Amino acid sequence: MKKELALDIQRKVLSNGLRTFAVTQKGILSSHVVLGLRAGARRENAETNGIAHFLEHMFFRGGIRYPTQEIISRAIEGVGGNFNAFTGYDKVYFVIGIPVNKFEVAMDVLSDMLFNAQLRTEDIDAERGAVLQELARRADDPSSIAWEELHKLMYGDTSLGRPIVGPRENLERFSRPDFVRFRQEMYNAREAVLAFSGDLNVKSAYSLAEKYFSGLPRTSSYYGFPDEPISSSANPEIVIKQKDFAQAIITLGVSAPAFHSNDRASAIVLDGILGSGMSSRLFQNVRTLKGLAYSVTSDYGNGHDFGAFVCSAGVSPTKTEEAIQAIALEIRRLMDEPPSANELQCAKSFRAGNLAMSSDNVSTILGWLVGSELSYGKAVTPTDAIHDADNVSRKDVTRIAQKLFLPGGWKVSIVGPYGGSVETIQDILHTTLIA
Where is the Peptidase M16 N-terminal domain positioned along the sequence (predicted)? Predict the structure, then answer.
């Protein structure tokens, strides 16, 4: 039986078309506000790559009522709150946690930042240095390099194949008109969802939402995501980046169901069996049995119209080929035979337990509501996700493994002091995955 969350969730559309959710919790002293917009890196081209993330930074530089970063910070932190934002490929999120009696402060600050951002040239130049240092930090992180190289292989010269932070030449070139244009095109009520929580009077809370967020334009001239092909080939594609690191970082990726797909739940359970948690096959066989890696996982992620299934590990450079073969063997096993009933139930229970525990954090619930409304056009909660996974069978796992794990579909990036060749890795994958 599907157990519902013990929360009062109400949905309302404001006068400008902005979709909102109010989540009321009696006796809770905190409040959260989450605003999500489909204004991530998917909305960029090669010339504007990096501006979505850079603009997210610039909002913190001040509006009219809160004109500087320091004043914004003190307005939130000075009443015991916290503030964060992050940019992904599909979406950008702004998240505020604050004592419930200061709920209006959160609405006031967030709306002023977004609608009244000054985007001063001197602030852009100052923030440019911070963003360039963020780029430099990623260049020193082998896992970040490996994932970016994998994205290039999987998606080619499209927005999905480019790093969210953007290239140095773009970051050094962006000026005020670029930010103003991107905000005008992407920040509108059609592409946004607002959610808030706490021990609130819902009628009063919605009055505040109308007061502060009805200024978000209803629409713009820009709609939808670009229609971008995903690269493919008859053979596995591999890139090796020689770096002076202690480990070789391996990532193997393949296209997977998008958020809308009916196969999404099956892919989630497949991920649980293959590489999520200490009882997963990759952990047990690649780490525990063979000692090839400290960290070895799989990860299934999806967006509005794309998905990726990725296996990753950090290994001794001299063990790179052995580790890739060991990972490929576990992939092949899932294609050949269904998991046991116990293994299937363990994967479902592990995910359900993690979702249940995350649901205790109401900001997580708000994130689910906002993200699913933006991606799917309706609210999806962790409870819904648990229910969907419960219906996945052993045959479903084998079917989705055979559908996704086609030998020619794999892309591989290796970052570190690995001395082998692309041809060697191709041979390992070919002989292991084609039994």
Answer: 30-167
